[in-house]
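Hey, weird one. I pasted the DNA-binding NtrC family response regulator sequence into the form twice and got a warning about non-standard characters only the second time. First submission, copied straight from the form history:
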Amino acid sequence: MTCTNATILVVEDDSIIGQSLVDHFAEHNQVHWRKDIATAREAILVEAYDILLLDMHLPDGEGVDLLAMLHEAPGSPQAIIMTAFPEHQMAVRTIKMGAVDYLEKPFDLEDLDLVVSKAIHQAYQSQHTQLQQRTQHSPLDKIVGTSAEITSLKQIITTVAASPDTTVLVTGETGTGKELVAQAIHKLSPRSDRTMVRVNCAALPPSLIEAELFGYEKGAYTDAKRSRKGYVEMAAGGTLFLDEVGELPLETQSKLLRLLEDKTFTKVGGEKEISVNARVVAATNRDLETMMEERTFRSDLYFRLNVIQIALPSLKQRPDDIEPLLRYYLAHYAQRLGKEAPVPDEGIIRQALAYHWPGNVRELRNFTERTVLLGEFPSLLANATGSIPATETPRQHQLKTLAELEREHIIASYSQMERNKTRTAAALGINRLTLRKKLEEYGIRD
């Protein structure tokens, strides 16, 4: 099976065919089966389906009647027509009415898998376009995933956002989406009409961090020819997002503690207390409790920041979201770069699920951007970051001929597809005859 986590509606009156389709797709997908137009129409209006497998001739009407109402359905179901009575004019008509493909019965399950895989990809692209149109009204849509972890996370964000003065600490590995969470909290809060100011504490030089955060008065430094606002003052009325808060020097931590306790601060070189009303959202990939024990992070500041802690799961802790994220970002970069995104086949999905993604969503996002730019998936996700295997030196890697690289790529793909020529040819973008000749050339025979 080439798709997972899809919601599929089978509309087929033949009990044998219908049950076969349900059995084929049910292991990795949610599959519903209806035998006539009336019950299918009810299902389509209630459930957001990704794929509609539609028989053309049904007991109470023609399948084409359902195509006319797909614009009323929640989501963007991709319709695939199935018929034992192929008619060229009818095929053209169904495609014009919105069907994405047309299969003649009896069809090979491998052919069906390829068609469904492409349709799933189109569904994700369509959903991505709709998502972009809704994003300004629904900031949570940028946090992609349907796993229990992400569902719970969105509920927590919604609850926390409603309390505009509560300090939040977001923790998690690099690349898990801490800034996205901070943005969602801000945009869903009563402070959304004011600015969210992001400060990367790790990027500021220790000698300048206090001046950057709190500002300085004229004459505070040799080159301070005028007074300047800091990030804290710029965030007045809005949200101050302190990314990598664990990197703050101890002397700056004490000043931040005062800001959290009294809502006041003084500029560098100044004496006047300045009041500021801003929500503080802090984020870190460090273990602050260990830093407290090592006396590199103040315990009183930790407890002030840790009013509400949102701990983000790593990508490997939510595997159900890997395929939706992969398809989402493929669609995102295809639209952004004006290119057609490669369709992930079963082998790519299997590799993505097996890979441990140490860089989390950020690494997956970079992987999809490279994929769209190059027009193909790398044969091994071990090379997803663009690194060269440890057993080879860069010079050795460069010395390989194109023929050698092609041979390695084809053999690896053939192995990943479990020696299935149809799927391998589709993944490589070549026909079966070309693949067979290449395999014979490499001495690989069934």
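That's the output from the first submission. The warning seems to come from a hidden character in my clipboard, not from the data itself. The longest strand covers residues 78-83.
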